[in-house]
């Protein structure tokens, strides 16, 4: 794999998911309006194999639907209101398809970190379909950085489109991190920032990994992490931790 790292140090979490409904085109637009150069978002499969954005397994929290999103076909999902839960100004927001997000990234010249968030049991299928689609949808742009907490999803993405950069997500420290990232040929490791101290950053960097941390909303903590050598900060506070934050 080509281990170049074209990505900027600040990444807008879920688009700009605290200023607009997370994982919608409106959130992506706000990130771009504030000058951000990279967004993170969560993607999964509908029952009939369409790739769309949603964080949770279920529709309940961030739409007017309910139940497991991956058990519904796209023609049902597309009818849902994915904005009113956040505020009346967003009534028209829909769950976006990955293809529409790719077009919006192209329009705004935004780089992307696509978190593969498979519906339970669909890990490998989601990783495979998403990698194949991303390769085509992002043609002519900087390739998206694929990440997942699911080893199986990343393995399937690696097999389907090995040239796409991958990052392993960990929410707890795993002493096996080196073997896992090596087997998956990861360019990066994506960690809950609370797991990191200066020594761990040095250890990971020595192994040749790029480090992305989430979700850092305190500017002092963001500055500390960048000083230790962390490569990218994923933040909700895209208004405070802006694209040129140091
Ligand atoms: O990719 C970093 C971060 O988004 C992972 O946590 O729950 O916000 O998807 P979560
Ligand atoms: Ca995410």
Indicate the overall shape. globular
Distance between the termini: 30 Å
- Give the strand line-up of the largest sheet: 1-9-8-7-6-5-4-2-3
- Uncertain regions: pLDDT < 50 for 5+ in a row? none
The residue fraction in helices comes out at: 25-40%
Rounded to the nearest angstrom, the radius of gyration is 17 Å
The kinds of small molecule bound in this structure are: SN-glycerol-3-phosphate, calcium ion
Give the SSE string. EHEEHHEHEHEHEHEHE
Name the average pLDDT. 97
Number of helices in the DSSP assignment: 8
Query: Structural class from helices and strands?
Result: alpha/beta
| Estimated share of beta-strand residues | 15-25%
Please give the largest β-sheet: 9 strands, mixed
Number of strands: 9
């Amino acid at each position: 794999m080509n281990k170049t790292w074209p990505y900027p140090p600040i990444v807008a979490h879920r688009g700009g998911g605290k200023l607009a409904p997370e994982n919608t085109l409106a959130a992506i637009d706000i990130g771009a309006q504030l000058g951000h150069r990279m967004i993170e978002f969560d993607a999964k499969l509908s029952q009939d194999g369409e790739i769309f954005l949603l964080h949770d397994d279920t529709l309940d929290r961030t739409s007017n639907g309910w139940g497991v999103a991956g058990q519904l076909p796209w023609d049902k999902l597309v009818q849902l209101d994915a904005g009113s839960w956040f505020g009346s100004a967003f009534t028209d927001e829909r769950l976006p398809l990955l293809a529409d997000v790719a077009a919006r990234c192209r329009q705004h010249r935004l780089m992307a970190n696509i978190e593969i968030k498979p519906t339970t049991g669909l890990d490998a299928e989601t990783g495979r379909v998403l990698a194949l689609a991303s390769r085509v949808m992002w043609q002519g742009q900087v390739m998206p950085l694929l990440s997942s907490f699911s080893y199986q999803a990343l393995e399937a993405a690696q097999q389907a489109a090995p040239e796409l950069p991958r990052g392993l997500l960990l929410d707890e420290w795993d002493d096996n991190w080196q073997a896992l990232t090596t087997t998956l040929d990861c360019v990066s490791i994506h960690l809950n920032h609370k797991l990191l101290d200066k020594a761990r950053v040095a250890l990971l960097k020595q192994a040749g990994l790029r480090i992305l941390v989430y979700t850092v909303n305190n500017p002092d903590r963001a500055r500390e992490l960048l000083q230790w050598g962390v490569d990218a900060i994923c933040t909700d506070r895209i208004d405070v931790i802006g694209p040129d934050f140091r």
